[in-house]
Amino acid sequence: MADAKVIPFGEEPRSRRAGRRAQGRGSKSSSAAASSAASSASEPASPSPSPSEPSSRPSSGPGPGRHSLSSVPEQPDAVEDRMTDEKHGPNDAPAPEPEAPRPGDSSWDRRLAEGLAFLRRRVTGDYEVDEFGYDKELTDQVLMSLIRPLYENYFRVEVKGIENIPSDGGALVVSNHSGTLPLDGLMMQVAVHDNHPAGRHLRLLAADLVFMLPVVNELARKAGHTLACAEDAERLLERGEIVGVMPEGFKGLGKPFGERYKLQRFGRGGFVSTALRHGVPIVPCSIVGAEEIYPMIGNSKTLARLLGFPYFPITPTFPWLGPLGALPLPTKWTIQFGEPIPTDGYPPEAAEDPMLMFNLTDQVREQIQHTLYKLLVQRRSVFF
User: Fold this and answer.
1) Are 118 and 135 in contact (CB under 8 A)?
2) DSSP characters over 262-299
3) What is the DSSP letter of 341?
4) How confident is the model at residue 106, as a pLDDT?
5) What is the tens place of the pLDDT at every residue in 76-85?
6) Which residues in 108-250 belong to E strands, given as ranges?
7) Nearest Cα to 272, choosing from 188, 342, 370, 186?
8) Rg (CA), the chain
9) How far apart are CA 29 and CA 36, in angstroms?
10) The dihedral of CA 214, 274, 170, 149: what is its sign?
11) Which of 82, 102, 168, 319 is paired with 67 by a 20 to 30 Å CA distance?
């Protein structure tokens, strides 16, 4: 045992290697190549020559007495890709993942370009305004954007039955009116603008007082509002517009808090006569939530006469808290558009029948009142 020779692992005596070479000379070329690769792998790698020294080994392929270079081991990523290809096949390779959006491709660039183009058209006067003063571009890009935070985040308006407004042609939307200030009309306009699948626009009929105020007058015209008269309503319906009317007027807008959600008189039914003349459907609309934004507990008639207003509201916060008291309460709103009432089945002379107008007016009023009661029962809270 003391004379035993220890052979390092991976090495073998030169005599064995010489005998193995002699036996492999008569075999096939493939076996020679395999044994040569195995023997070269067992020998330690010779150091590569330095860049300054010329290489003494020729650059030609392996020949007699020469050993081929050992192959570079595969990297883990290459092994994983090869296993994936074997699993899925060449045609079933997984699709490449979409590239992440770069900072320069964000929508802010597009918005900036649209904003600059909008300003250029405003400065050069290259925009359209209809005969009523309605500026569609200004309404879509500016006015609706200013009202929308109040609609979405403050009052959190929920819209129901928007599909009852026709996709084309004229229609008359009749709604209740409340809230001390006419914010319900603006919220109804945003509800139609943002939720109707056909992108319809609501053209509201406003009272004379709206067009007597300096700044409000111009903004109301630009937003598509027009005077609450039969002539303007008929011209809009002839053009196939959606017209909104609130027959309660100032009686509903300035009623005391104790009479909330109790509809006032609907006038003489002029809106029904207009709908009958043009054969357009009447869409009842019920708004819940506007009655509580300014709880009107009193009315200063003296101040109202001095200022030329139909009423001067007194609420728990106004005028006691000054401008802060004019902030509306953040109530939860629901706007529901009811089933349309068709009018195209009546003869043209039906618009002059007072009994028919009275019956249709009462039918619209009762449908709005019934929907208001139903929504109030379903409501969990004034603010939630």
Assistant:
1) no
2) -----TT-HHHHHHHHHT--EEEEEEESGGGSS---EE
3) B
4) 64
5) 444 444 554 4
6) 158-160, 171-175, 202-206, 226-227, 242-245
7) 342
8) 42
9) 10
10) positive
11) 82
